Amino acid sequence: MSSHPLAPEWLALPSDANALDAAVWPTNAVRDDSGEIRIGGVGVRELAASFGTPLYVIDEADARGRAESIRSAFETELARIGTDAKIYYAGKAFLSAEIARWVTEAGLYIDVCTGGELAVALAAGVDPARLGMHGNNKSLREIDRCVEVGVGAIVIDSVQEVDRVAEAAARHGRRQRVRLRVNSGVHAHTHEFLATAHEDQKFGVTLDQAQDVVASIRSHASLDFIGLHCHIGSQIFGSEGFAESAARLIALHKELLAAGDVPELNLGGGFGIAYTSADDPTPVEELAARIATVIAEECSLQDIPVPVLAFEPGRAVIGPSGVSLYEVGTTKDVEVQAADGSSDVRRYVSVDGGMSDNVRTALYGADYTVRIADRISDAEPQLVRVAGKHCESGDIVVNADYLPADVRPGDLVAVPATGAYCWSLASNYNHLGRPPVVAVRDGRARVIVRGETEADLLARDAGLDAR
């Protein structure tokens, strides 16, 4: 059987449309003897019956393990070159009180970029000294709160922020630790909207501006400049971009040492994960080893000591740990003309969620994998497009994958690698409530974020209060 003419080039025809690729699914996701997918020892039928669908499911042991392995890999490799590592979890990927506790218990720091994310981390009991505050437009209130509670580092993103942070620190009688975000000019090869190191973009200052901004920071007694920060993109495979960016930053780091101490360097991160079997992310051990070697070589070339290094792995911690569970409502065959002029059938499989719980497909053209979750089938693989229930033609969850041809209403289907940027980007489009988030581990499931009900949505409608 050949590949479907409407399938994208990267999508291979599977020999088994029931198989779970270990590179894409959480560590503790398996099919049992009945064909049901179990995650963390809990079957999808039980999850759907107990919590409903759509549902975000997080493999807790997998998430904790990834956090620990990333930290360990960088600590090991940086110890080899005589320095320490700080690993920051990206709060924007997915932040709740439980997640904040998991990652800090694994030895990670946390990045936040709004007052709301800061509030979650603090409410979860995270030591403020283990928090970093990002953002290109921090409000005066957010800056003041960060200084007041003792956030470990604020990333200065513009010239105006220097005085704003300095004034807040002076008002609270503190000496606030700050980094300066710079654009290295290195662009990782990712989707245009995810690339964040172009000169023509909203974050940071250019390398040419950096020395003047650092001099301004150092002129304030209430500020403590601890180093540079850079972020070259997201969903990055390979280490070449990090190597080139590090070389440029270390040259600037040396120049800044001439006027004062620069104890740290934050190289960002955005490490890629596998969303489909076609993705081949770089193992974190390989990334850590390569980056450490480059840093050691560049510092030796510049004849400077290796600073403490900070990294922000992004979705790599929580992304692979999440699975979205849906119920199929309808299926529909649509005849579509292929590029060669021939026509074939694309099967639309509509589920009870959609772009309100996963907007990445519509926003970025992201690709995902899908599998029937509550049974196995020996039917031939059929090319499908998984669509949501929203009144929007772009409401697509999985653009292209193969499912058994007998996929039918009532089936549970699961989409892996949805732990990052799905719940955090979720909306109430068409007045759907955002789904609950359930953590599974050792055969048990518990809600870590409650889902929204229609009553929750109506409670915010002030027009109903007036009536």
Structure in words:
The protein is of the alpha/beta class. It folds into two domains: 29-59 and 320-459, Lyase, Ornithine Decarboxylase, Chain A, domain 1; 109-316, TIM Barrel (Alpha-Beta Barrel), CATH 3.20.20. It contains twelve helices and 21 strands. It has helices at residues 44-51, 60-80, 97-105, 115-123, 140-149, 159-171, 207-218, 240-257, 284-302, 360-364, 454-459, 462-466, and strands at 29-31, 37-39, 42-43, 55-59, 85-90, 109-112, 131-133, 153-156, 176-183, 205-206, 223-229, 264-269, 308-312, 322-337, 343-351, 371-372, 381-387, 396-404, 412-416, 437-441, 444-449. Strands 4, 14, 15, 16, 17, 18, 19, 20 and 21 form a nine-stranded mixed sheet that branches. It has an eight-stranded parallel barrel with strand order 5-6-7-8-9-11-12-13, surrounded by seven helices. α9 (284-302) links the parallel β12 (264-269) and β13.
Distance between the termini: 62 Å
CATH top level assignment of the largest domain = Alpha Beta
Architecture (CATH level 2) name of the largest domain = Alpha-Beta Barrel
Unreliable stretches:
191-197
Please tag this protein with its features.
single chain, 467 residues, alpha/beta, Lyase, Ornithine Decarboxylase, Chain A, domain 1, TIM Barrel, 2 domains, nine-stranded mixed beta sheet, eight-stranded parallel beta barrel, 29% helix
